[in-house]
Structure of 4Fe-4S Mo/W bis-MGD-type domain-containing protein:
Amino acid sequence: MQSSPTPTHCPYCALQCGMNLTPAPGGGAEVTERADFPVNRGALCGKGRSAPAVLSSRVRLTSPLVRSGDGTLVPAGWEEALDRIAGALARIRAQHGPDACGVFGGGGLTNEKAYALGKFARVVLGTSQIDYNGRFCMSSAAAAVTRAFGLDRGLPFPLADIPRTGCVILVGSNPAETMPPFLRYFTELRENGGTLVVVDPRRTRTAEQADLHLAPRPGTDLALALGLLHLVIAEGRTDEAYIAQRTTGWEEARAAAMAYWPEYVERVTGVPVPQLREAVRMFCEPASAMVLTARGPEQQSKGTDTVGAWINLCLATGRAGRPLSGYGCLTGQGNGQGGREHGQKADQLPGYRKLTDPAARRHVAGVWGVDPDSLPGPGRSAYELLDALGTDIRALLLMGSNPVVSAPRAAHVEQRLRSLDFLAVCDVVLSETAALADVVLPVTQWAEETGTVTSLEGRVLLRRRALAPPDGVRSDLEVLHELAARLGVEKGFPTDPEEVFDELRRASAGGPADYSGITYRELARENGVFWPCPAGAEPDDPEDACLDVYAQDPAGDEDLDDPEPPGTPRLFLDRFATEDGRARFAPVSHRPGAEEPDEEYPLLLTTGRVVAQYQSGAQTRRVDELNAAAPGPFVELHPRLAARLGAAEGDLLAVVSRRGRAVAPARITAGIRPDTLFMPFHWPGEGRVNTVTNPALDPVSRMPEFKVCAVRAEVVETA
Ligand code: SF4
C-alpha cells in the first residue's frame, strides 16, 4: 500500500475531476486537492470528495454470493461462483444457441473493461445480444453528430474553449446538480463578456445563472430549435459562405425551418416570441458561439432529430468546426464517451467501428485472431435487450449497471430480470439488480485498479491504482479471464489493464476513435491525451507521439491553447469526418412526444438528477453525508398545480402513468412550469420514478423517452 498521494480521477461523472488519493492510517483513503489537473483545478463536488466511503468494506461486497436452495443469496468461494456462471452460460448456449446469452455493460466501466466485455460477448459467447446503459445516456446525440459530422466525440473542442466563446446555449443540462465544478466555465464565460442561454422546463440553479432562460414545455425542444433557425433565416443571420463551402443539405433544412413561425413556436413550446428573438440575437451577434446539449433534448423518442435541429442552428450560422465555436454533447457517465467507443454497444466494434462494416470486421477479427465471419452481427439496443429477457434471451451477464432503478418502465424490466433462467452480476455493492442474481461477483473499483477512461471532452485519462483491494474481491478483467478459460478460450483475455489497453490500441488503429498512439506511459506523463491519436511510423514504440491529423487551425492565427494538450483537442477545423468533408444538415420537423397529456393523464412528467446522488444511486446511497443531503425522491410542482391538486409541501403525491406509479413528497416551487412535474431518478422502491417513465424509443438511436410522459398526480397522504 502506498502512503504518498496518488493522482487519479473521480469515479463518478464524465467531467472526471482530478483528485489526489492517499491511503488513510486506519484504513480507507483521503481525497485531497489536485490543482494541476486543468479541468477542475482542484474543485470537487460532494460526490467526489466522499468517494472513498464506497471503498469501505462496510458498504460493499467482499465475497461472491450464490443463490441457495431456499432462494437466498449466500456467500460462496470464487471457484464455485465462477463455475456456476460458466456452467449456466455453456448450458444455455448449448440448449438455445449463442443469442440466448445476453451481456449488459455500463458507461462507468473503464475502456479496458468495455473492450474486454465486448470481445467476451462476441468471441467467447458468440452472441449478438450485448448493449450497455450508455444507450440511456447520450445515444441520441451520438447518432445526430455522426449523421451531421461523420464522427461522434461528445465535445469536439476542449472545455477550455467555453469561457472564450461569445455565447453558449445550454440545452437540457443542469451542471449545478450534475457536475458543479463545470459551472465555473460559465462564470468565466460571463466575466469575459459572453452570454449564457439556458433551455430547461425548470428554473434550475443553472438556469438562475443564465442571461436568458427559455422554459419550453417538455418534449418541444425540437420545435424551439426550428423556431430559432426560422428567425436566423428571417433576420438574415445565416452564414451563406460557410453553408456553401462546408455543408450539404441546406435547402431541405431551410425549407423545413421556414414552417416554424415564431408565433406557432410560442404556441407549441410556451416560450414567448421576444425570448426567441433575444436568444437569436445573443447567439448570432458574437464572433463565436456554441450549443451544448445534455439529456433534456436527447432522452426523447425524437432525440436524434432534436439534437439534429440544434446542430442545424450551428451549421446555418457557421458555428461548427470553427475556433471557439461548435456543437457539443455533455456526456454524463464517468466513461460515457470511452464506453461507447470500444465494443460494448450492440452495433459497434472497438475504435467506434461499425459492426456491419466488412473492413472493420476484418481488422478487429485480425487483432482478435478469429474468423471475421464468426463475429455476430448487431444485436438489440439496451431497452429492447432488457425487454427480451426471459423470452429468447435466457441468461444475462451484467457488469456496471443497475437497470432495476435506471431503466425505463422499471417494474417491467425488474420482472423480465426475474424471469431469466440465469442472471450473473458483477458489482461492488449489492445493488437492486444484483439482489436478483443467481450469482453475484464482488469486484474491484476505481481506486483499487488501474485503467483508462475518456472524459466528456474526449480526453483519455489514466486512473491509477492507489490502494490494495480488500480480500475477497477480484477485478472485472480477472472475471472475464476466468470465465473465458472455463468456456474454452484460454488466451486473449489478459488481466493486466495495460496489456488490454495495448490490444485496444491495435484494435482501434485506423478507426474513427483511434487510440493507437496513446500509451500508458504518455498518459502517466500528461494530463490526458485527446483522441483521435493515431500512432506514428512506429506504433509499438511507447515513446511515439500520436500524429495530430484533425486539429489544424485553418486560419493559423488562433492562440487556442497554451500549452496545446497532446492528441487532437479540436475536431473539424478544416474538414468534417464525412466522405466529402462537409457537414450534413438534417431536414427535421417537430413531432409530439410518444405520449401526450389527455383527460386521464393530464400532466407532463420529466426526470433528472440531484447533486448529492449519482445515477441509480447504487454507490452514493451508501454514503452517509450524501444521504443526509438527499435522503429520498420528491415531486417538484408549481404552486398553481399544487393548489389544484390540494397538495401542500411534504404531502405524499402519487404520480401515475400507464405503466405504474411512484410516490414521493411534494416539493412546491415556482421554478417549474405549471403543466409539468419533476422527479429525480436515483432511488428504488415506491419512489422509483422509472416505474412511470415511457420506454418509447427513438427510431435511430433507440433512446427511451425518459424526459417526457403523460401522468396524473394525486395526494395519497398529507404531511
Ligand atoms: Fe466527480 Fe463529477 Fe463531482 Fe467532479 S463533478 S467530483 S467528476 S461527480
In short: The chain has four domains: 6-55, 65-136+335-488, 139-329, 603-717.
